[in-house]
Amino acid sequence: MKPSDLIKNDLGENVWAECWPKPSATGDLTVVDELSPFQSTKTYVIHGRRGQFDFTTLPHGSYCVYVADGQKAVRLTRAGKEIESILKETWETLADCNPVILASLILKFFDGGIRSTHRVLSGEDDLRAHGKNYVLNDRELERMQGLIGTTSSSRSDGLFVIRAVTLCGWMHDKRNLGIEHIYISKSGAVHLEKREVLSKKIFTSVPQIRY
């Protein structure tokens, strides 16, 4: 059975494991995770043990993203921008989506690049909740007082607009704090303004990951 068929039918991890009992030469598929901002679809992340998919993970793995609605499963890629077709279909209900999750999904395909990704924050509280191994730059934080705000969404002049507070960087080492303004038209087309950088080094140190 193809990965898209497993996802489309929402068969779950047990059936997935039965279909893929050992590493596959074509996929090395290990697990399906669900993370979706939409009410009518589910978003799945498929992890691989090597670099066969769009997105890189440590130490040598990768993953790809599918959206499924029970009838079809669409693989989302950076090159194809298939996310725009999903946004077109769900445009009228985007206001019902959690803006943090929606922005996180969109930014995978429109900004950051392979070796640089975003973590979307709900606001300053998320920044402070990173844990003791992330040391905040107090001087930078004081300088930005009142500028961080929250991740939110609105409609304006026929566009759906997301103001996303994000940390940008490589894997866990995300120190660039800034604001992304994401504009979505009724056609599903996405436009990003130039990133508003608040701090290039909001953390003075981050934890080391060893493999």
Summarize the structure.
By secondary structure, the chain is α+β, with helices and mostly antiparallel strands. 21% of the residues lie in helices and 35% in strands. The chain is globular and about 50 Å long.
Total discrete domains = 2
What's the number of helices?
6
State the major sheet.
6 strands, antiparallel
Which residues sit in consecutive blocks of at least 5 with pLDDT less than 50?
none
Order of helices and strands: HHEEEEEHHEHEHEEEEEE
Beta percentage is 35-45%
Q: What are the defining features of this structure?
A:
single chain, 211 residues, alpha+beta, 2 domains, 6-stranded antiparallel β-sheet, 5-stranded antiparallel β-sheet, 6 helices, 13 strands
What would you say this structure looks like, in words?
This protein has 211 residues and is α+β, with helices and mostly antiparallel strands. β8 (152-156) and β9 (159-170) form a beta hairpin. It contains 6 helices and 13 strands. It starts with a helix and ends in a 6-residue tail after the last strand. The mean pLDDT is 82. The longest helix has 12 residues, at 99-110. The chain is globular, with a radius of gyration of 18 Å.
Spell out the blueprint of helices and strands.
Layout: H1 3-8, H2 12-19, E1 29-34, E2 42-48, E3 55-57, E4 61-68, E5 73-76, H3 83-90, H4 99-110, E6 117-121, H5 124-128, E7 135-136, H6 138-143, E8 152-156, E9 159-170, E10 173-184, E11 190-192, E12 196-199, E13 203-205
Antiparallel strand pairs: 1-2, 2-4, 3-4, 4-5, 6-9, 7-13, 8-9, 9-10, 10-11, 10-12
